[in-house]
Write a structure and sequence with these properties.
heterodimer; A: 5-stranded mixed sheet; 4-stranded antiparallel sheet
């Protein structure tokens, strides 16, 4: 599986936008970029995914670089409930493997 | 409620024992995945079933086994338990097994403590 690189941790202020980066320089043409998050004491939760174009949903936006070697998950207005570990995953044909993710702390 | 049901939520057992964890996938999903999450290892993929058949294997120990039944629920059997098997065990389901254009829905997990 292609590998992703994420910062171990990030901090944000409440009600401000958050940009969570992910590098994936070895991505293949058929890999989708998936983002999941895991709130404390809960199972991972799907956030968003995309292939080439930027994607928006009610939870977040996904900005994908033109060369697809990096992507950014954007939370438009962070709330305290967004404090979680965010995982960026490259998914090809097969199962999904999780890395260490980025622990996001949101300060009031 | 994600639609994926895992039972029991908590389990405490002694070393050497055997336990069974159960997962009911979201309605309409054919694929079930099992993951183990311990403090030092993160989320580790164990095994996948699709419509009753084993589809992929990850870092699953020989002491562990799983199956998916005709009604699509799945069970993960852990035997000869060791202290190091203490972890959160998550089940996820997906409508499709391999297509990367689909996401997973996770259950809330079973916390296993081996004493």
């Amino acid at each position: 599986d292609a590998k992703t690189t994420q910062p171990n941790s990030m901090e944000s202020n409440e009600e401000e936008p958050v940009h969570l980066p992910c590098n994936h320089s070895t991505i293949s043409g058929t890999d989708y970029i998936h983002w999941y998050r895991q709130l404390p004491s809960q199972g991972p939760e799907y956030v968003i995914h995309g292939l080439t174009s930027n994607v928006n949903n009610r939870m977040a936006s996904l900005a994908i670089a033109e060369d697809r070697k990096s992507s950014t998950l954007i939370l438009h207005r962070a709330t305290l409930r967004d404090a979680a570990v965010y995982y960026c995953i490259l998914r090809g044909w097969g199962d999904m493997r999780f890395g260490a993710g980025t622990r996001l702390t949101v300060k009031p | 409620d994600s639609g994926v049901t895992q039972t029991p939520k908590h389990l405490i057992t002694a070393t050497g024992q055997r336990v069974t964890l159960r997962c009911s996938p979201r309605s309409g999903d054919l694929s079930v995945y099992w993951y183990q999450q311990s403090l030092d290892q993160g989320l580790q993929f164990l095994i996948q079933y699709y419509n009753g058949e084993e589809r992929a294997k990850g870092n699953i120990l020989e002491r562990f086994s799983a199956q998916q039944f005709p009604d699509l629920h799945s069970e993960l059997n852990l035997s000869s338990l060791e202290l190091g098997d203490s972890a959160l065990y998550f089940c996820a389901s997906s409508v499709e097994g391999q297509d990367p254009n689909y996401g997973y829905t996770f259950g809330s997990g079973t916390r296993l403590t081996v004493v």
